[in-house]
Design goal:
It is a single chain. By secondary structure, the chain is of the alpha+beta class. It has helices spanning 23-27, 85-91, 95-103, 118-121, 131-169; strands spanning 13-16, 19-22, 40-43, 46-49, 59-61, 67-70, 75-78, 105-107, 114-116. Strand 1 (13-16) and strand 2 (19-22) form a beta hairpin. The longest helix is centred in the C-terminal third of the chain and has 39 residues, at 131-169. The protein is globular and about 65 Å long. InterPro entries: Restrct_endonuc_typeI_TRD_sf. This is Restriction endonuclease subunit S. Keywords: DNA-binding, Endonuclease, Hydrolase, Nuclease, Restriction system.
Length: 171
């Protein structure tokens, strides 16, 4: 596992249930320690998870950042050759996967945080289709996600336009 050797070596990232984000943009400030030497380095196409929040779905495929750093408490995995990255990215968030994450997470000091049983997590097995089928499914899901993203941008644009027009009506 690669770790930072100097402070602020790369951009600080946060893994959340909704994805991976630049910590500065997500929180509008950096919340990491002032000294981030020893933070873990994450690269494009890696998987990152929060052991305390995995049970809620805090596991993500990095398809946005070439390189960044994450808290030393996070776990980082690479996708082995022979597996389609887009398929694996989709598999990480399926209902079956989320259910399995709950099973391998044990009650911690609080109700909100649970501790990942790493041994049990690494024993999880998922039935995998052929590589060609993985590629087909992964491509289809990524295309749907792209279209959903475009639709959400369009909705936000229409909402903004609606607000503008309503304000203009009462001037």
């Amino acid at each position: 596992m690669e770790r930072t050797k100097v402070n602020n070596q790369h951009e600080i990232l946060s893994s959340t249930v909704k994805g991976i984000f630049s910590q500065r943009e997500y929180f509008s400030k950096e919340i990491a320690s002032e000294n981030n030497v020893g933070y873990k380095i994450i690269r494009l196409h890696d998987i990152v998870l929060s052991p305390q929040n995995l049970w809620m779905g805090n596991i993500n495929y990095n398809d946005k950042f070439d390189i960044g750093i994450v808290s030393p408490s996070y776990k980082i995995y690479s996708i082995a050759d022979g597996y389609d990255k887009k398929y694996i990215a989709a598999l990480l968030k399926t209902h079956r996967a989320l259910y399995n994450y709950m099973l391998v997470s044990e009650q911690g000091a609080s109700v909100v945080r649970r501790n990942l049983n790493t041994e049990a997590f690494e024993q999880l097995v998922f039935k995998m289709p052929s590589h060609n089928k993985q590629r087909e499914i992964g491509y289809g899901i990524s295309l749907l996600n792209y279209r959903l993203e475009i639709a959400n941008i369009l909705i936000r644009t229409y909402e903004s336009q609606k607000q503008y027009l309503l304000r203009q009506m009462f001037i």
